[in-house]
Amino acid sequence: xxxxGSALSLRRWVRSAGFAWAGVSQAYRTQxxxxxxxxxxxxxxxxxxxxxxxxxxxxxxxxxxxxxxxVNTALEAVVDLVSPELHPLAxxxxxxxxxxxLVASVGALLVGLAVLGPxxxxxxG
Length: 125
Hints:
single chain; 125 residues; kinase activity; transferase; lipid metabolism
């Protein structure tokens, strides 16, 4: 569908946001890893609030993991569309995208330990 030409159109933004939300909803319904990552993020944010720990690093780490999981899901769908049969390059693309999610997840875990670990130890000690 053609744009109305205005980048500042509220109608255009709402329509685009609807498409984006449909992608997030589809990923939540169909991707087990995305659901796990969403709930891990909710837990991390709740713990940060409870411990009065800095929220920004936790939110950024969660957003990075979830965003990359969405990109991974999109890439897998496109690869499956253009290469329904097994192909070595399709495997490389899918594995690299999954690797990006893994790297972000390990980074998020380290951020969580660095930000939430000290106040959690103080609360427990």
